Amino acid sequence: MSETSWLRSSTTTSTAPPAPGLLHGLAPLLREWLPRQRWFAGKGSPISGFGLVSATELLPCDTRIGTPGLLHVLLEVHQADAEPDCYQLLLGTRTMLPPALAPALIGHAVGGPLDGLTIYQALHDPRLAGHLLDRLRSPGRTESLRFTAESGAGIPSGLAPRLSTAEQSNTSVIYGDTYILKLFRRISPGPNPDLELSLALARAGSQRIAAPAAWFEAVGIYHEPATLGVLQHYLPASADGWALALRAVDDGNDFTPEARALGQATAEVHAALARALPTAVLRRQQIEHLAASMAERLDAAATAVPALRPYRTQLRTAFHDLAVLGGRGRSVAAQRVHGDLHLGQALRTPAQGWVLIDFEGEPARPLPERRRPAPPVQDVAGMLRSFDYAARHRDPVAPGAAAWAERHRAAFCVGYADASGTDPRSDPVLIRAYETDKAVYEVLYEARNRPAWLPIPMSAVQRLAAGPDPLAPPRRSSS
Ligand SMILES: Nc1ncnc2c1ncn2[C@@H]1O[C@H](COP(=O)(O)OP(=O)(O)OP(=O)(O)O)[C@@H](O)[C@H]1O
Ligand SMILES: [Mg+2]
C-alpha cells in the first residue's frame, strides 16, 4: 500500500474490504445530508443504518498532501420497513474548502481514516469532475470500478465540466458542451437499460439517441456488473419536448407537426430496438398476468385515493377486455421499450430532429422488470398521456384543453403509423389498458406529491372509464 493510499493499492483488481473505520467517520454526516438530496428515494423515513458496499480512492484522500482527494463510495442505506437501497456517492476531500465550493459541503469527518478532512460533493469541483472524465477516457480497472470507452470514441481531455441544473433523479455533469455524464444514484446489479439500450441503438446506427462514448461499472461486488455512470454525446441547442409543448399551448400554437415527427421518431426507435435486442410474444397466460397486475395496481390506488373509487368498476373493464383478448388466442408482440416515455424524454435538436433520452425506465420498478420485453404500446400510452398533461398544465378544465390534447395525440399516432405501418389506435383494447394503467399511476402520484395536479389524470380516468375511444380508427382486421 502506498503512503498516500490508506484504502488499498489502486492497481489491484481484487475487491478488498473497505478501509476499517471509514463509515464510522462518515455516518453522522451522511445521516444528515442524504435525506436532503433530491435523488434520495427514502425521504420521510429515518435512516436506521448504513452498510459500506465499496470505497475506492480515485485520488488519494490524505490530510498531508494538500491536494483534493476523490473517493467513490457505494453505500447501503437501511430504513425501517424497506429493503435497503444502494446509493452511489462521489466524495471530495480537502483540508479546507475554498469559498466557491461552500455549497458543496457535506461536513467534517471526525474519526476514521478521513479524520479532520472536509467532505464535499466531488462533482461540484471542476478538478475532480475533470479527473473522472480522464478516468473514463482511459479504459481499465481501479479495484471494483471498471471503466470502458466505446471503441473509436476519441474522447478529448481538458473539457470544462459543469454540473447540470436539471431537476433529475440522478446527477449529470456536462463537459464542454460535448459530453454529458449521468451518474446513477440508486444502484442495482445488472446493466442499466439507459446504457444497454442507447448502446444497442447507437451500434445499430440510430440517430434518435445520444450515443454513449464511455461508461463505468461496479464489478465483483454483485453477481453481475452494476452500471454506475454513462458518458453520452451532449446535444447542444436542444429543447425538450415538454417545454416546447407547454410553450405551444400557452401561445396557442399548433404543435401537431412536431407531435407527428415525434411519433415517427418513436416508431423508428422501436423498430431499431426490436432488431437489436431480444423480442418475445405474449400469449394467453402472459396477457392475463399483465391484465391482473394492472387490476392489482388499480385496486391499490383506489384504496389510497378515494376520488378513484367511483370509477374502479368501469376502469376494470379495460383490464378485463385485455385478459379476454388473450383468452381468445390473440398474441401480442413484446420487445425492449423505453419504459418511461413522455415529452420530457424527447429533445428536439437542430441536427438530428427528435432524439429520445433516458432509457432507464420507471426508476421505481425493479431492474429485472424494467429490462423485460413489453408491448411497445406502453411507450405510446406514456406519450399520449403526456400530451394530455401539456394541454391541461395551466388549467385542467380549460376550454379547448381536451381538443388540443386530442389533436396532438392523434398527430403522434399518425406519425407512429407513418414510420411503422401500424396506427396504435387500431388496437383499442391494448392502448386503453396501457393508458388506464398509466393514468392510475398518475392519480396515485399526484395525490401523494402534487394534489393540485390531481384533476389532470382524473379527467383521463373519466374518459377511459367510459370505454374504448369511439373515434379510434377501425380495429385491426387480424385481431
Ligand atoms: N445527451 C444530452 N444532451 C443534452 N441534454 C441532455 C442530454 N441528456 C440529458 N440531457 C438533459 O439533462 C436532463 C436530465 O437527463 P436525464 O433525463 O437523462 O436524467 P435523469 O436523472 O434520468 O432524470 P429523471 O429524474 O427525469 O429521470 C434532461 O432533461 C435534459 O435536459
Ligand atoms: Mg431517469
TrEMBL record:
Keyword Transport carried by entry: no
InterPro entries listed in its UniProt record: Aminoglycoside_PTrfase, Kinase-like_dom_sf, Mak_N_cap
Gene Ontology MF: a single term: kinase activity
Reactions listed under catalytic activity: D-maltose + ATP = alpha-maltose 1-phosphate + ADP + H(+)
Pathway recorded for this protein: Glycan biosynthesis; glycogen biosynthesis
Signal sequence extent: none
Keywords: ATP-binding, Carbohydrate metabolism, Glycogen biosynthesis, Glycogen metabolism, Kinase, Nucleotide-binding, Transferase
E.C. code: 2.7.1.175
Annotated stretches, region: Disordered: 1-20
Domain Maltokinase N-terminal cap: 33-125
Family from the record: Belongs to the aminoglycoside phosphotransferase family.
Protein name according to UniProt: Maltokinase
Organism, scientific name: Actinacidiphila oryziradicis
Source taxonomy: Bacteria, Bacillati, Actinomycetota, Actinomycetes, Kitasatosporales
